[in-house]
Amino acid sequence: MKGRDHGHGSCRHCQESTPDRGDLAGKFEQCGRLLSHCLGKRRGQGRILRTLCQRGEMPQKELQDLLGIQAGSMSEIAAKLEDKGLIVRVRSEEDRRKVSLSITERGRAWVAQRDEEHILRRRAELFSSLTPEEQKLLESLLDKLSSDWVQRLERRGDGEEGRGR
User: Fold this and answer.
1) 49 and 87 Cβ atoms separated by less than 8 Å
2) What 3-state class would DSSP assign to 85?
3) Which one of 50, 95, 122, 161 has the largest count of C-beta atoms within 10 Å of its C-beta?
């Protein structure tokens, strides 16, 4: 994806579409991939930094679970943030497998420099082809689906079966 224009229309990834599976789940998958691509891969770093800024030091595993990030991805992102001087990782003396993360002053400055309004505008642009009424309807339908899916996972237990583990 490097070197591509990310005005999202001129890059190949945004123009390509996956084969239409003809069902809603397939359309959701395609939209999910495009949405993730359009919001950029670095959003995980921002979410991590903002969370640490708000909550303070916390165990890496807890942050990973809170943000829904895979363990391998979390370790990789944390290493990159540490290399940039934005966070500090500290290994527990009692259990060397446990790592605690905290944001540095440089990390706090990074968060402060980001314009949250700009991010919200960018996210809103993704749905600008819909009328305000259509956006409200879509939001309502997504809330309904999400609530149902969470209930289904809870009835199964901890939801691990639904994630293929």
Assistant:
1) yes
2) coil
3) 50
